[in-house]
Amino acid sequence: MSRHTPSMAVMVAAARKAARGLQRDFGEVENLQVSLKGPANFVTAADRKAEKVIFQELSKARPGYGFLMEEGGVVEGADKSHRWIIDPLDGTTNFLHGIPMFSISIALEREGQIVAGLVYNPISDEMFIAEKGQGAFLNDRRIRVAVRRELAQAVVGTGIPHIGRPGHQRFTAELGVVMNEVAGVRRMGSAALDLAWVAAGRLDAYWEANLAAWDVAAGIILVREAGGFVTDLNGRDTMLDSGGIIAGNETLHRQLADVLKKAHKPA
Ligand code: 2AM
Ligand code: CA
């Protein structure tokens, strides 16, 4: 069993409350798929609504903490040492298409360091949480990164840039080298869930570029508390700023980083 701090209890309560709205709205999206107008505006509204619920719950419980949110951006708090980093709906494209793979991501930063993270999949009811020094948990059961030591046996997650996003050529080059080294590549569509799945040992490793802080903040502490390694694509600790990320156990993290370097060298 995990022992949560009061802050984690607050995060869990906020996520569960927002999830109830997302579950209802996801059911509606499945119905809207057949309409010509499609569910796009509806999904934007669901996203904003979920963020508002989380913002209100966290503000009530911890007055003064600051916020960095996907929809609402930065909200300065009176308390300069604490900040919530929130993605109310990570995996929006999946949600829009009725694919039941998306998540709520909430992280707590103290003095610039992530001290708690939560990633919740409302459809599978899987709650991934971690606090600094306390380990990582899935629905109250301890989780650990996978122990595989060979890329040739590893299933590796990634994200594929799409229309309107940068990095298409870079990704094609990366995939070109990685697919020759691994047992399988998976593209799930929610960076927060990908990292939670690395923490749970479902994915052996994961990489992606051009992400935002709210996509990865909670997932980073999940992987680390599950015994894994996380850096940006240059091996540095600046994932929240650079937007690139590599995660896995110590061995696979290093191997994947080395393989990716090959993709970035001019031929
Ligand atoms: P989203 O669903 O909240 O948009 C998929 O590869 C991952 O990339 C998802 O976590 C997705 O988050 C994220 N993503 C998509 N577009 C993005 C953008 N313009 N900036 C940062 N992250 C993005
Ligand atoms: Ca996101």
Characterise the protein shown here.
With 267 residues, the chain is α+β, with helices and mostly antiparallel strands. The chain folds into 2 domains: 6-143, Fructose-1,6-Bisphosphatase, Chain A, domain 1 (2-Layer Sandwich); 151-263, D-Maltodextrin-Binding Protein, domain 2 (3-Layer(aba) Sandwich). 40% of the residues lie in helices and 26% in strands. The protein has 8 helices and 13 strands. The strands form 2 sheets. An 8-stranded mixed β-sheet has the order 2-1-3-4-5-6-7-8, with helices on both faces. The chain has a 5-stranded mixed β-sheet with strand order 10-9-11-13-12, with helices on both faces. The longest helix has 27 residues, at 6-32. It binds adenosine-2'-monophosphate and calcium ion.
Question: In terms of topology, how is this protein built?
Answer:
Layout lengths: L5 H27 L7 H22 L3 E5 L3 E3 L3 E12 L1 H5 L6 E8 L2 E9 L4 E6 L3 E4 L2 E3 L11 E4 L9 H11 L5 E4 L3 H9 L5 E4 L4 H13 L3 E3 L7 H4 L2 E4 L1 H15 L3
Parallel strand pairs: 1-3, 9-10, 9-11
Antiparallel strand pairs: 1-2, 3-4, 4-5, 5-6, 6-7, 7-8, 11-13, 12-13
Helix pairs in contact: 1-2, 4-8, 5-6
The structure holds adenosine-2'-monophosphate and calcium ion.
Q: Key terms for this structure?
A:
2 domains; binds adenosine-2'-monophosphate; alpha+beta; binds calcium ion; Fructose-1,6-Bisphosphatase, Chain A, domain 1; 13 strands; globular; five-stranded mixed beta sheet; 267 residues; eight-stranded mixed beta sheet; single chain; D-Maltodextrin-Binding Protein, domain 2
